[in-house]
Write a structure and sequence with these properties.
Helices cover about 70% and strands about 0% of the residues. With about 70 residues, it is mainly alpha-helical. The termini are far apart.
Length: about 70
Amino acid sequence: MNTSRSISIGVALVLVLTGLTGCVSSSRSNVTVQESIKFSKGQELNDLLRAKQAGAVTDAEYETLRRVLMERPN
């Protein structure tokens, strides 16, 4: 009984490790760093208002986000 359990655990371990090595060897990623753009508080407020008018945010969400924007330093 212990031998079959050891074999099962060994097979499971081999399968897991094989799966992990496949993930590691095939995962290539390129990172591109771009310059960030800073929007003015006024522009963000205008965008938020347009989102509210378009129905993308509710009145409550608008007020919450507007307060967050207004409390943020320039």
